[in-house]
Structure of NUBP1 factor:
Amino acid sequence: ELRARFRAVRHTVLVLSGKGGVGKSTFSALLAHGLAADETKQVALLDIDICGPSIPKMMGLEGEQVHQSGSGWSPVYVEENLGVMSVGFLLSSPDDAVIWRGPKKNGLIKQFLRDVDWGEVDYLIVDTPPGTSDEHLSIVQYLSATHIDGAVIVTTPQEVSLQDVRKEINFCRKVKLPIIGVVENMSGFVCPKCKNESQIFPPTTGGAEKMCQNMNVSLLGKVPLDPEIGKSCDRGQSFLAEAPESPATLSYRNIIQRIQEYCEQHHLQEEKIM
C-alpha cells in the first residue's frame, strides 16, 4: 500500500536534528515555501512531530480540519501547490497535549503515510521531532519500501547542539539514510541599527563547518538570526516572501537550490541503476 501511495512522490526529504529548539520546523516550513515558489512544482509537508506539532501555526493553518474522501485523508492546502498534514489538525485545541506511547505514535505515522492522498508530488518534506527514537525509526522503516532522497540535519553553532547532531549523523549512517547535508541555523546576528555582528550562540568548537569536515558531510549553508523569521512564523506567513532581501532569505535560497540539485542528481543515479 505504501509503495502504491508513494509511486506518485518524486522526492522525499527528511528534516532531522538531535536537538530540540534549533529551528527544524521553521526550516521545514521555509523549505516547503521556497520549493512551492516554483508554481510548476507540487510540494507536500508532513509533520510527524506528534507531541509538538508546530507546522499548522507556522503555515497559517491553525484551526483547520482534515477531510476524508474515498481516496483517503485530504491534506490541508496553503497554496494550490502546497499541501500540509499534521497531528495538529486532529486536535480539538492547539493547546491539547498528545500523551501517547510509542506504538500509538508509530500507528499514526503509518496512517499518515498510507492514507493521505497527496496526489502527484514533486517534493515531500517530512518534519521530524528531535532525537533518534521511535518516530525516526518508524519513518525510515516505512519509507524503506519506497525511496528517500536523504536527510537535511539542522543545528545551531554551539557545542551543546553539535554534540546531539553528531548522534543524528551516526543514526543516519546506521539506518543507511543518505545525508544531503547540514544547515547551521542562528549563525550570527547582525544588529539592524548598528550593523555589528554578534555570535548569540558562539561556535566554541568551530561550529557546524568544523563538525562537517570531521564527519565528512556537506555543509549546505549558514542561516543568520533574524527576528523577523520568528514573527513571520507566528503570523503563519512565509518569511521568504515577506523579507526577500534579508541575508537570511538569500542564505535559505542558496540552501534550497543545493537541496534541489542533490535530489535531481539522486533521481538520475536511481534511474541509471534501474
In short: The two ends are 21 Å apart (CA to CA). The first strand starts at residue 9 and ends at 16.
